[in-house]
Amino acid sequence: MADGGVNYGRRRLLTAATTVVGGVGAAAVAWPFLATMQPSARAQAAGSPVEVDIANIEAGQLIRVEWRGKPVWIVRRTDTMLASLKEMAEKLRDPNSEIISQTPHFARNEYRSIKPEYLILVGICTHLGCAPTYRPEISPADLGPDWQGGFFCPCHGSRFDISGRVYKNVPAPTNLEVPPHRYLSETRVMIGETEETA
Length: 198
Fold this sequence. Notes:
Elements: H1 8-36, H2 41-46, E1 50-53, E2 62-67, E3 70-76, H3 79-88, E4 118-122, E5 133-135, E6 150-152, E7 159-161, E8 181-183, E9 188-191
Antiparallel strand pairs: 1-9, 2-3, 3-4, 5-6, 6-7, 8-9
């Protein structure tokens, strides 16, 4: 015992024990709250890159996948489709893909792709977010004799060529977005990451 009948050793022990129990109790109360602030496994997966097998896409075919809740289109273009791109420049608002936010550096070319044969786009119209339709046919009656194939938005009439470049004088202000992507092999592509971010 110390002065005045006070046991300082016992007091320190009780103070330390109370502090530890209080800390554990505070952590127990805070943990469920903090856990709700973490994204769910589903939400984390929704933002994850998506690996796609492109081996069985036929020439001229479009397939759809989902990345970050958005539709992503992969089109295997034919030689005829690729040849038509050179003729389109004068009809397009941004033929060289100069709006950087819409096109990663590796796709700032007339093909808007790493490999000319494959086009990868976010399938959302840049006007009001509608879903354009894939219209690969040449000169259909409803789109006119100048149509060389591409994407048509039925909501307000925006038109995009087979590289997703927007025509002049349509409601959509910019080209369709090219998502970040990279090729893992000749038949597999990873959407959602580039060589730099992998």
